[in-house]
User: Fold this.
Amino acid sequence: MERPYFPVFIDMEGRLILVAGGGRIALRRVRTLLRFGAKIRVIAPRLCRELEDMGKDRMICIEQREYKPGDIKGAALVLAATDSREVNRQIREECRAEGIPVNVSDDRDLCDFYFPSVVMTDEAVIGISSGGEDPGRTRRIRSEIEKTLGQSGWYE
Assistant:
């Protein structure tokens, strides 16, 4: 790993997380964050069915439109997961200027934090990251941890 990141466990209960993007990456991350009590706001012109359903069920707040400057206001964390590299970079620059940690899904070098694979059991929460270098290795490690725990935990 070129630049190691310090693992931190944060109380997400009630914290506003902005997710820019409505595809499968956004969906996986929203599912994970909901498990930890985060308040999710998704902004995207197009949404996958599951995110639409979560919005209808009022599990998350959805704004079906393009991202625009200022949308990060009030967010504790931002996930830039649009299908536009240009928009993701715009979001990153805005977050940097405002001091809001951001994860850019299409460029690990622009991330302030990595979104880990999560194993969650009644006894533990375990985050696993290869720094974006080898997602396959991360999946294998997660599988080994689940075997060691003797159960299939919930994970992203």
About this structure: Residues 16-110 form a domain with the Rossmann fold fold (CATH 3.40.50.720). The chain has four helices and eight strands.
